[in-house]
Each structure stands twice: as structure tokens, then as C-alpha cells.
Amino acid sequence: MEERGRVAGELERLIDGGTPHKSAVASQVPMPPPRNPRSAIHAKSPITKELGEEDVGMEEVSVVIDGRQPSWLNGVELLEDAKWNKHVLPTGCKGIDILLGGGLREGQLTEIVGPSSSGKTQVCLHSALGVADVHLGVVLFLDTCNSFSPHRIAHMVNSQSDTLVKEGKEGRLKRIMSSILCHSLFDIFELLDVLHQLECKLKHQVKSSGNRIRLLIVDSISSLITPILGGKNSQGRLMMITTGILLKKIANEYNLSVLVTNHMVGGEGGSLKPALGESWKNIPHVRLSLSRDQGSNVCNVSILKHTIIASGRTAKFVIDN
Amino acid sequence: MSETSRFRSLEGGHGALKGAQTAWDMLSEEQMQKHITTGCEELDAILGGGIHCKEVTEVGGVPGIGKTQLGIQLAVNVQIPVECGGLGGKAIYIDTEGSFMVERAHQIAEGCISDLLDNTAHRLKDFPACPEILQPNSFLANIFYFRICSYTEQIATINYLEKFLEEQKDVKIIVVDSITFHFRQDFDDLALRTRVLGGMSLKLMRFAKKYSLAVVLLNQVTTKFVEGSFHLTLALGDTWSHACTNRIILYWNGNDRHAYIDKSPSLRSATAPFLITGKVYEVTRVI
Fold first, then answer.
1. Number of A:B CB contacts under 8 A?
2. Region entry Disordered: which residue ranges (chain A) (predicted)?
3. What's A262's domain CATH number?
4. pLDDT higher than 70, residue B119
5. DSSP H helical ranges for A37-93
6. Is pLDDT of A44 > 80?
7. CB distance from B271 to chain A under 8 Å?
8. Which of B151, B157, B169, B254 has its Cβ near the most Cβ atoms within 10 Å?
């Protein structure tokens, strides 16, 4: 009975995450500033020092439990992670960058919503170009509507490198274009497969390689989800949310930014609202709404949802020809 | 799929992903890709050379503006031999309204051939086989025609096209005239219609990419009540407007027909006038 009480007490302490126990306070290991918060130390050590022979089994169980759950982080570790690992990637469209306070943030899922021909694909192409050029990382463009235009990207690159000589221009073009990978998908299952492959690859790759993926673009995710959403069963919604969660997980764990595009459908009273419904609204971290007046080069962008900035703020940017 | 087997399957591809291509490779491929001429120089100019392969282009306009004429013209122009600067491919014409007229197609084929013989005679001299190929009847023989009478037939045909394209490797254009006809009246459940159309457009996108062909969808217009007035917009709603890569709108400007690029990832918005004559689409003549 006495022993059972002691084991129960140990278990309780394990679950609490190591509240200091009598003499354990002195033996607590100080925590160094973490480079990667996943390696943060749980307060395991104070307890294991105290365990006697009978509790070796408890130690093994605690290892198994801790291995299965993601590590608990405190505010300081999260702040360190945000400072060191989650950079801001400029999109190249000045209006959007100013509105977002820098650009797309790594670790976040950003959604661009807009009616047809409002500039969503142009923003995606600009961002791909900007990231490939400045940050020396790889951009992965998942294209569902055959709108990835290498010719357009080349045109944008060349219009930016007016000051270079011919060899410099070609070298720059080749460098940038070789860092942008494009894959066409026409099925939600293909998308999930590609994301799982990507996750697998990122888990096994060497951390310090120069060809790290920095930006993942899915243009457009709504055309994959619309054919399965709705109807009598809710599997479509399940797949949509699974995809959203997987995208956010990849963004957070591997420190890349995810950009998706969505279209608009008719709402009440003839106004437009974003497609994919209410369940999708909570999934992206940042939602931007684009619109463009007929025949003009100027796009209006407004914030529908953001983790830090107030929604409703607007800006304009120009799509250059 | 287990993690190890997935990891092993990654090794066959480029860096990050199996099946991905770099933009640099795609650029070189794109520069070698020929376009399908519409027959009208100005229209070709705003389209960047003609209708692009590997893309889905939607053409919309009021009845009588010339959408079917454009469809037939493209089905003929895709067959221009490679020696004369064309693609030398075959065409699939899916007709849902019954507006395809064989006599008109014959007329257009004759016009196209006579233009070729006039303009590129110097190239044709080197190719003795050409006179047999350049007959209107052989042009007609290379257009595969499907007549659709209901939306189920339309869905079935598009599902069947995959097998057809595997067998007929030369097909370079699919024209669907019109994509909207059977979906406008019979559908009670609009949500189901959106899903079905979404699935159909994804399939067509896949064909365009996989078999490197052009897909041209002809669409009708409808009136929409927006902010107190009626506007003409393309049929099938907002979701369908995202289903194409490029969109061209044909409209009347006084007595003249004009074409306007409404949506494109790589072309700037521009307008071009065109004429429909006895032979082919032509540039407007300055009077």
C-alpha cells in the first residue's frame, strides 16, 4: 500500500512536468538559450535522480511518454524560436510588404482570396521570385490550374536587372529560375501525397544545406477542394482540414512559409465572400483579400485576418507589365 | 505508405520532389513550344503567338459573335504541318449544341490551305508529300467529333478522353463547344453542379498538362444583377471563372467584333479587333 502510494506520487509528478520536489530544486539543470525549441529540456532529471531500483520501470515509461508527446515550450523558448528561426520573407509587392510589416512570415499559413483575375497568381509569382533571389532558398510551387508561367517570371527578373551586363543578367536569371521548383497537381490526394513526401524529405535532410525550402505555394488550393466539399457526407471537409493542418505543421516544424490562394463565391446580397466555407476560415494564420478594378494595374489588398495586425487595414500595389 | 518506402521513392526525382521541374527547364521547354494560330494576326499578337498548349483557355461571348467559328478555325489551324510553322496535330471537337457545320469546316480548311500555299510556297517546295496532306478532306479527317446530348454524356466523354488520348498521341487541341450548355438548365442542385464542374475542369487541366495540348472551352454569357443593374457575365458562376488558365471575351464594339483578354497569368490585358469572312478570321482592314 505504501509502495503503491509512492508510485502514484511519482506518476503524478511526471504528469505535472516536474514540479520541484523537496531536494530536487537544488539539482535542477539550468536551461541554455535554445537554438531549436524541440530540444528544450523537460524537467526529467530531478525525478530520475530520486528513483530507486524498483522505479527503473517508471523511468522507462517516462521515456516512452515523453517521446510520444511534443515538448512543452514556455514563452521564452517560443520567443527565441520566433527570433532565430522564423524569418520574414518579402513578397516583392511593396503594398503587401508594408501592410504585413515585412512580408510573409515563416511558420505561418497565408491565404490570398480574390475574385477571378484579381492578381493572386501574380502575387505568388512575385513572392517566388523574391524569395529565390534574395534568400537563396528553394521555392516549391504547386500548381493546380496551369498558371505557373516561367516566361512571366523571366520577364519580371529581366525587368529588375537592368543595371547588369548581359552575362550577369543571364546568370542571375538561371540562378533564380533554378531555385523555383514547380509541380502540377490536379487532385487533393496527390497534394496530400506530395506534402507527406515533402515532410519525409525535410525530416531526413541535412539541416545546414543551402538548398533549404523557404516558401511553399499552392495555387490554388480551392480548385482541389471544391469538387469534394459539400454533399451528403463530410469527407470533403475532413480532407480540407487535414490538408490545412498538415500545411501548418510543415510550416512550423521546418520553418518555411506557406502561401495558398482561394477564390470567391457569391454571398448574401450579391457580395462576394471567400470560398471553402466557415470551417476553412480558422485554418490560415493570415488572410488577405485582393481586388482589382477592371482594366487597371492597381490592386487593392486588405487584411481579413492576421495574428498581430488589426484586420481591415488596406493597401494598394501595382502589377507591372 | 510507410515512411521508408516513401523516402526511397523520393530518390528518383529532382532534389525536393519527385515529378517537380525547375522553372529554368520549364522556360526552355516553353520557348520551344509552338502556339496555335487563330488566323488573325492581331489576335495572335495579343495572345503572344496564338493559343498556348498546356493551358486551358476559355472563350466567352454573346450568341452570334463567332465563338464556334473560332473553335472550328483552331481545329483546322492545329493541323498546319510542322514544315509550315504549325503543330501538325489532330483535333478533338466536342459539340454540345449541335453548332458544328461540316460545310463551314470544309470552307475554312480550304481557306487555310490556300493561305498556306500562297504564303509559304518556298518551304513547301522541299516537301513533296505535301499536296496529299494539304487537302480539305484530310483536314476534316483529322478532326475527331463527339456529339453530346446531355450532361451525363458530357461527363462520360471527358472521362473517356483519357483513354482516347493514350491511343491517339497526335491530338493537340480539344475544343468544347460549349461547356455550359447542358449544365444551365437541368441541374436543380447548384452545389452538386459546382462540384461536378470543378472536377471536370481539373480533369481538363490534367489532360492539357499531361499530353501537352491546348484545351479551348467556349462559354455562353448570362445576365447578372449587380448593384442595381444588369451585367453580362460568363455563365456558370464565380467558381467556374477560376477553372481556366486564360480567358478571352469576344464582344461587339459598335459594328465591329473585338476580342479582349480578361484573365491570363502571363499576358497583359489587351484588345484586338477581328473579322469573320468567307475564309478565315482576318485582321480588320483599314478603310
1. 158
2. 17-41
3. 3.40.50.300
4. yes
5. 45-50, 56-68, 75-84
6. no
7. no
8. B151
Chain B residue with the nearest C-alpha to that of A118: B263
Mean pLDDT of chain A: 80
- Among B242, B268, B269, the strongest candidate for a mutation testing the A interface, having the largest count of A CBs within 10 A, is B242
Give the closest of B1, B191, B239 to A263, CB-based.
B239
Calpha distance B62→B211 (Å, rounded): 31
Residue B165 belongs to some domain of the structure: yes
CB contact under 8 A, B23 and A204: no
Grouping H, G, I as helix, E, B as strand and the rest as coil, residue A321 is coil
Judged by CB atoms closer than 8 Å, whether chains meet at A181 and B54 is answered as no
The CATH number given to whatever domain includes residue B192 is 3.40.50.300
Cell numbers placing B180: 455550359
Q: Note whether residue B62 is domain-resident.
A: yes
In a domain, residue A55? The reply is: no
- Measured between beta carbons, which residues in chain B are less than 8 angstroms from residue A141? 23
Q: Do B245 and A187 touch (CB under 8 A)?
A: no
* Domain span at A213: 87-318
Residue A38 has pLDDT above 50, yes or no: no
Q: What is the rounded CA–CA span in Å between residue A118 and residue A297?
A: 10
For residue A133, CA distances in Å to A119, A152, A167, A174, B286 come to 21, 15, 17, 11, 47
Range with the lowest mean pLDDT among A133-137, B101-105, B228-232? Answer: B228-232
Environment class of B219 (CB within 10 Å of its CB; exposed 0-12, middle 13-18, buried 19+)? buried
The reply to whether residue A182 touches residue B191, judged by beta carbons under 8 angstroms, is no
Q: Domain range for residue B122?
A: 42-282
Tell whether A308 is covered by a domain. Answer: yes
Q: Using the predicted structure, report yes or no on whether residue B218 has a pLDDT greater than 60.
A: yes
**Which residues on B lie below 8 Å from A240 (Cβ)?**
none
**Per-residue pLDDT tens digits for A120-133:** 899 999 999 888 88
pLDDT above 90: residue B167: yes
Q: How many domains does chain A have?
A: 1
